[in-house]
Structure prediction request, 207 residues.
Amino acid sequence: MGTDIHGGVEFRHPCAGTEDYDGEPWVTAMDLWPLYDETDYTAFGLLFAVRNYAGFPPLAPGRGLPVDLSSAMRSHPASWVARGELDGASRVSWRELASLDPATRPEYFVGRVAWHKTSRPGLPRRRLVSHQWPAEVLSVVGVPPVEARSSPERVEWTAGDLVCAYEPLTAGAVLGSETHWTHVFAVMKALAGPFGDDGVRLVVAFD
Prediction:
């Protein structure tokens, strides 16, 4: 059974904690969807230790939902909050995300190989690989270009009716410009301008 992510971006009200403000300290800025609409366990593992098959040192593992979660998040019609309390939830500030070293790698795996048929470009199949690629992967994707084993960037090639790609397993690649995380991070960065790096957070739950 697959694991999906739910959540949203919140910011801390600049008047929170003052006598002149009696509202909630944290305010919902935007739901995670439609900013993020992918299921990528490598990214989930890197950020939140969920399905961390790659073995990344996770940035914000299992922190649970914040006690001061905004009411808009708590009353989400999809009830992801309730599901998240059972199946895993966490939160991470923009300061933490912005300070993540893009060169961060897991200890063992060096990259991941993906492939899909040219006639079906939807969901690709993926395999994590170490320096020595498994024989069963090579039997599917063929002999990759020489640069695929050492390139710091994504490399693509074809093998029969398959489109194949190798991607180095770094935080910069897993959360990079080819993913939906760039949309999430752009919103958080924009909000950090008026509300501060610690005043913007991403709250997530998984089911």
User: Anything to note?
Assistant: Helices lie at 41-48, 71-74, 80-87, 94-98, 135-141, 171-174, 181-195. The first strand starts at residue 5 and ends at 12. Residues 5-102+177-206 form one domain.
